[in-house]
Design a protein that fits this description.
Layout: E1 4-6, E2 13-15, E3 19-33, E4 48-61, E5 64-77, E6 80-96, H1 100-129, H2 142-162
Antiparallel strand pairs: 1-2, 3-6, 4-5, 5-6
Helix pairs in contact: 1-2
Length: 163
C-alpha cells in the first residue's frame, strides 16, 4: 500500500515512496595530452599504464544531487608520457523520501554504477582516436570501494582516539 498525502497548494496527491530518478547524464570534462608525439609512436618498448579513479558528488537542491566519476589514464614508455587522458562523467539524480544516512551509499555506489559505463566508452574512444590502442577499463565494484572507505574511516577514528 503506497503512502500518499494531498498537497494543499496543488490539490495533487504526493507519494512518500522512495524516489530515485536520473535527471541527466553528461560528460563534464574530457582532456587529452600527448606531450611526446609524434616521436612516441616510433618507440617500440612496452608501455606502462597508470589508472586512477575518483568519485565525488554534491547536493544541488533539496532533493537533487550530482554524482561524478573521474578517471585519469597515463601511459608511459620508460619515463616519457605517451598520453594522459582525464575524463569526468556526471549525472544529476533526484533522490527523495530516502533516509539521509542512505544517501551517501546511493551517491557512492548506485550513481557511479549508472554513470561509469558512459565514461568507460568515452575513455576507450578518445585513446583510440589519439592513435593508440583502445584502453578498455574494467568494471569497478563501487560497493566494495564504499565499504572499504567506511572501514578506513572507522580505523582512522579509532587511531585518533588512541592518540
Amino acid at each position: 500500500m503506497s503512502s500518499e498525502t494531498i498537497s494543499p497548494e496543488s490539490g495533487i496527491a504526493e507519494t512518500t515512496q522512495p524516489i530515485f530518478l536520473i535527471q541527466n547524464i553528461y560528460l563534464k570534462d574530457l582532456s587529452l595530452e600527448q606531450p611526446n608525439s609524434p616521436a612516441i609512436f616510433l618507440d617500440q618498448k612496452m608501455p606502462e599504464l597508470e589508472i586512477a579513479v575518483n568519485i565525488g558528488g554534491e547536493q544541488l537542491a533539496e532533493t537533487v544531487f550530482e554524482s561524478q566519476v573521474t578517471v585519469t589514464i597515463t601511459e608511459k614508455i620508460e619515463e616519457k608520457v605517451a598520453y594522459l587522458v582525464e575524463g569526468t562523467q556526471a549525472g544529476i539524480f533526484e533522490i527523495r523520501h530516502i533516509p539521509t544516512e542512505a544517501i551517501d551509499q546511493i551517491m557512492s555506489v548506485s550513481c557511479p554504477n549508472i554513470i561509469y559505463p558512459y565514461l568507460r566508452a568515452h575513455m576507450a574512444d578518445i585513446v583510440l582516436k589519439a592513435g593508440f590502442p583502445a584502453v578498455h577499463l574494467s568494471e569497478i565494484n563501487f560497493e566494495a570501494l564504499y565499504h572499504r572507505r567506511l572501514q578506513d574511516e572507522a580505523s582512522e577514528k579509532t587511531e585518533n582516539k588512541a592518540h
